[in-house]
Write a structure and sequence with these properties.
mainly alpha
Length: 139
């Protein structure tokens, strides 16, 4: 699923916005982990483990197992990047100053209640603004 080119409902876009801080922090973690592993060599088995029989029915190659794990990590990175990119590719559509402020505070991880306190407006008004933002971001 390619979030960057898909069309979504306002509810799905709201979900993407609300989870955006998680996507970004998780991407930072995964990219750091991925970069630290690139170039690190595999430790060969030695001692008694090297001559013991391997379990049947599963892949016993540590290199293949690690390759599969990294492929899963790549898929998760791609999925999260795609979700974040959906929001990033559309945020220039928000031209109203107050909407942009609410949007940026939400992307920074602030709750609706905290945004309402910060801007001295009601929480229900924040929800209305967020709904309007989702309509703008919708294709």
């Amino acid at each position: 699923m390619n979030y960057a080119t898909e069309t979504y409902t306002t509810e799905k876009i709201m979900d993407l916005i609300n989870n955006y801080p998680y996507y970004i922090s998780r991407l930072k973690e995964l990219n750091a982990q991925y970069e630290s592993e690139i170039g690190s060599g595999m430790t060969a088995q030695y001692g008694i483990e090297s001559v013991m029989p391997k379990a049947q029915g599963s892949n016993s190659s540590p290199v293949e197992n690690d390759t599969l794990r990294r492929k899963k990590m790549n898929k998760e990175i791609s999925r999260l990047e795609s979700k974040a990119r959906y929001i990033q590719n559309r945020w220039d559509r928000i031209t109203d100053e107050r909407m942009a402020l609410v949007f940026n505070l939400r992307l920074n991880g602030m709750t609706y209640q905290n945004i309402a306190c910060e801007l001295d407006i009601s929480s229900s008004r924040i929800h209305q603004i967020m709904y309007e933002i989702c309509k703008l971001l919708q294709d």
